[in-house]
């Protein structure tokens, strides 16, 4: 027998801090040992001992077609045969840029990066360069990657200066980031009344996926658009998670609001490291070499990443793809909610397109960071481990959204709901 997940995790910690290359993988908030994945196919992955799990993390969003989709794998294989990286233009980058600008309503031009973090970091620099202003407004509980300007959370009130979320983020950077409660337009207006002429950009997850799954309240995104127009600030939709996930044209298409800039990642790389930022031509023309705002990357637009991304975008562009994905996600959420209700466990679900969240709360809706953090973490832990033992892998944190892929058919969804019924019955009992 291969080593257990426990042994593998211990071994990993010798030379990797915490044994992982991204913190939430370590199961810190649910306890226990992370699952070491050997391979994946469709809706499932398998650990080093060939234990199978129905996967609702999907590499944190990218695997919208399911794992190891044969056409995507073939596209990457073909690209690899021609060389891994050139550091010179390729037609595959043009194809990717054309597709993104065709499919995303507000995108006139786009630049490719190697991660979502690079995309948001570059979009912020661009907004600052374009407006000549330094201040950024973001929302509590929204995550935009780990660059210094964005790794900031709120102080106690909307108008307090930002407090760094991590040692190493200079206070001077955090001071330029004002954090406001999500879904609270009133607070946004108060901030702008005070410092609106200093604000370069509002950056927002149009559906939040980083404090579980929290959709915008009606009027919230429209309100942000109006405030930005009034004060000459750039509106950035961070669609790294929602892009090609909540609908083909992202949250901006779903809610009918056009941001000035959009950041992308995850799905557009089909599982390879890719990000992108793009938007209004007049702003994008400020990027070097056209304009003075610097952005670069040795591996930006990498040919294998383009091959995986372009093939993924082509496959999800077929008519009806997002209707089916949304119906499957809804069926999963309805089944989970009904199971919780049947066992008297206070749990609700929230979902948009192919993303969803489970909240152990007796509220009927979760709208912001305070609501999300007030949920019952112990109940989530018990549910998470119960499901893991049943062979169903949800995100190992109550603050992360879940993802359904096109490979999650009726069989996987029914099996998940049946497992949840058993787990919730044990929790109730
Ligand atoms: N923005 C959002 C909304 C995200 O969810 C993430 C990652 O989860 C990022 C940015 C950062 O992307 P990456 O992890 O590719 O750097």
UniProtKB/TrEMBL annotation:
This is Glutamate-1-semialdehyde 2,1-aminomutase. Belongs to the class-III pyridoxal-phosphate-dependent aminotransferase family. HemL subfamily. Pathway: Porphyrin-containing compound metabolism; protoporphyrin-IX biosynthesis; 5-aminolevulinate from L-glutamyl-tRNA(Glu): step 2/2. It comes from Guyparkeria halophila. Pfam families: Aminotran_3. It is an enzyme of class 5 (isomerase). InterPro entries: 4pyrrol_synth_GluAld_NH2Trfase, Aminotrans_3, Aminotrans_3_PPA_site, PyrdxlP-dep_Trfase, PyrdxlP-dep_Trfase_major, PyrdxlP-dep_Trfase_small. PANTHER family: GLUTAMATE-1-SEMIALDEHYDE 2,1-AMINOMUTASE (PTHR43713), GLUTAMATE-1-SEMIALDEHYDE 2,1-AMINOMUTASE 1, CHLOROPLASTIC-RELATED (PTHR43713:SF3). Transmembrane segments: none annotated. The modification N6-(pyridoxal phosphate)lysine is found at residue 266. Keywords: Cytoplasm, Isomerase, Porphyrin biosynthesis, Pyridoxal phosphate. PROSITE patterns: AA_TRANSFER_CLASS_3. Its EC number is 5.4.3.8. Its cofactor is pyridoxal 5'-phosphate. It is found in: Cytoplasm. GO terms for molecular function: glutamate-1-semialdehyde 2,1-aminomutase activity. Its main location: cytoplasm. Homodimer. It catalyses: (S)-4-amino-5-oxopentanoate = 5-aminolevulinate.
């Amino acid at each position: 027998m291969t080593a257990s997940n426990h042994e593998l995790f211990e071994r990993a910690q010798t030379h990797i801090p915490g044994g992982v290359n991204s913190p939430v993988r370590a199961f810190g908030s649910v306890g226990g040992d992370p699952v070491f994945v050997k391979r994946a196919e469709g809706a499932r992955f398998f650990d080093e001992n060939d234990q199978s799990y129905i996967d609702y993390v999907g590499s944190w969003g990218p695997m919208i077609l399911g794992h190891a989709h044969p056409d995507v794998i073939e596209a990457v294989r073909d690209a690899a045969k021609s060389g891994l990286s050139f550091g010179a233009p390729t037609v595959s980058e043009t194809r990717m840029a054309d597709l993104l600008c065709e499919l995303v309503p507000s995108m006139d031009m786009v630049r490719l990066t190697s991660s979502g973090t690079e995309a948001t970091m570059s979009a912020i620099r661009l907004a600052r360069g374009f407006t000549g202003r330094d201040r950024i407004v973001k929302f509590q509980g929204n995550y935009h990657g780990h660059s210094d300007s964005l790794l900031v959370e709120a102080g106690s009130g909307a108008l307090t200066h930002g407090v760094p979320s991590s040692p190493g983020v200079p206070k001077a950077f955090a001071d330029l980031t004002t954090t406001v409660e999500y879904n609270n337009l009133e607070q946004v207006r108060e901030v702008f009344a005070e410092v609106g002429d200093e604000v370069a950009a509002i950056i927002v997850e149009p559906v939040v996926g980083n404090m579980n799954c929290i959709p915008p309240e009606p009027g919230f995104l429209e309100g942000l658009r109006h405030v930005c127009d009034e004060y000459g600030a750039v509106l950035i939709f961070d669609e790294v998670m929602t892009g090609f996930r909540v609908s083909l044209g992202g949250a901006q298409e779903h809610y009918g609001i056009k941001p000035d800039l959009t950041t992308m990642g995850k799905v557009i790389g089909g599982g390879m490291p890719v990000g992108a930022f793009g938007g209004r031509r007049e702003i994008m023309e400020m990027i070097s070499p056209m304009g003075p705002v610097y952005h670069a990357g040795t591996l930006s637009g990498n040919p294998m990443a383009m091959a995986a991304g372009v093939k993924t975008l082509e496959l999800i562009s077929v008519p009806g793809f997002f209707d089916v994905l949304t119906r499957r996600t809804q069926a999963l959420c309805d089944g989970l909610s009904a199971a919780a209700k049947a066992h008297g466990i206070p749990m609700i679900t929230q979902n948009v397109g192919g993303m969803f969240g489970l909240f152990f709360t007796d509220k009927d809706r979760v709208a912001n960071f305070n609501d999300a953090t007030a949920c019952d973490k112990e109940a989530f832990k018990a549910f998470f481990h119960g499901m893991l033992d049943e062979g169903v892998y949800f995100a190992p944190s109550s603050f992360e959204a879940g993802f359904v892929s096109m490979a999650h058919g009726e069989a996987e969804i029914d099996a998940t709901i049946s497992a949840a019924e058993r787990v919730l019955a044990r929790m109730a009992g």
